[in-house]
Amino acid sequence: MKSKQILIKFLGYYKKRGHKLIPNVSLVPENDSTLLYVNSGMFPLVPYLSGETHPLGKRLMNVQRALRFFEDIDNIGITNRHTTAFHMLGNWSIGEYFKKEQLNWVYEFYIEIIGLDPSRMYASVFAGDEYSPKDTESIDLLKKIFSKYGIEAKENERIFPYGREDNWWQRGDAPGELGGPDSEVFYYLGEGTGIGLNPAEHQDEFLEIGNSVFMQYRRTNDGGWNELPQKNVDFGGGLERIALISQRKKDIFQTDNFWPIIQKLEKLTGVSYNKDGKTKKAMSIIADHMRASTLLVMDGVIPSNKDQGYLLRRLIRRMVRAGKTLQLNENISVNLVSSVIEIEVLNYLYPELKNNISQIQQVFSDEEDKFRTTFEKGSNVVHKYLTNLQTVNENQVAESAFSFYESLGYPLEIFLEDIKDTNLNLDVIKVESIYNVLFKQHRDLSRKGAEQKFKGGLADHSDQVIKYHTATHLLDMALRNILGNHVTQQGSNISKDRLRFDFSHQNKLTSDEITKIESLVNETIKTDLPVNFILLPMDEAEKSGALHFFKEKYGDIVKFIISEKV
What we know:
CATH architecture of the largest domain: 2-Layer Sandwich
Number of helices: 19
Number of domains: 4
Distance between the termini: 61 Å
Structural class: alpha+beta
CATH class of the largest domain: Alpha Beta
Helix content: 40-55%
Low-confidence stretches: 453-459, 549-560
Mean pLDDT: 86
């Protein structure tokens, strides 16, 4: 069954049971500074699981794009199941139905609607501890469910109790956080039926395809758990993993969620995906990262050294590195954008992608071109260094990594990938830690030097510095006027000798744009407008529409700059 069909059937199944569809939100979290990216389907529902009333009611469902970058990036191409971006199918009960309905519906959907083999399905439950008893209710329900399909489900044979680390969900440790036991669904991929094999001890042979969380507790001030009057259900099932089983594929990259990208890579390289392990890994990395990168750009992320932009930059850089293995030395990401958009389920979920192909290609092209020069210049040098390394010492290697960064701009994350490929007996976490210490020391020294070289700034009230400070505001205005309102100030440094203005913009400025910006600033200066200021409360200044950045640096009363002409 195709992924699009699985998705449609899931939503249809739960719609018949009174569930309302909630939106598939951006990968960039809104109104939650604790998350760098949306990493689960339940992200949009946290307030309602905590007690707020949802406008669509108590039975909800969705499909949510999600990212697990740091958790899974090193497993791409190594296992048959890990991806950085995926889609989570979810259904929720906000204080209405509970274990009986949930477990029956989940297995009915998998077996009767999707057509999975019940003899290959296994379950886990919570084993109990000092805070919550063993989940015997779920065990009894699961036995009845399997019996319905002619299967005797014995404990520790088909139903496995696990401890808090495996079968307890909670969002955090703070008092008031919700939590509760969960029950996972596993599918056996090995030979035979798998009877008696413990999924926790045979992880390569079992694939988790769903998890029902029963949120029935709230964290207390003393670290314990109290029963909730409102008991919730939160189910999540990975669409890509369900497709792997339904489509009877050996690994997730052979499903229709990735195969169009793999086919394009085979065409570009003239090499089969299954040629050897090295080829398979490189193609898997590129296919995975292309899909994740496309979704990030769709959600407004551009490559940078911060936050989501850093994740995107790393994905594109890893694609360039993997491309070298396949003898692809240019335009890797640009050539594959159309293949990503051809994926049926993505086309169905995100029809707007078709209209943004050129924009996405431009972002990829700019970043790939920037990095490729650095990579090509440094990769051979680094490879030669690592292959000829006589003494394996983390301190020495970390110092060399920093030297390669300073002299060649060679990124640490790519250097660490190179270490792994050479099979050196090095602790890469230790290398990274030592490197970060060296980097911080270098940065602190550079800052001290800059403080000596560029004294002045806002503490210097000379006429020249005041003029430069005013000029930064004019430059900000001109940049937004010429380039667009997306431009925002990211920092500045002013001395009597010069001004520096940092701003966000995804492309390098053209000569024509620079000329227009200079002309607009100079023309405004020539008008010789009188500049004054008044002191206003922060909220009143904001209502005026005045631009301001770095809000956290402002107090309750702010200086409001005005002139005769707005």
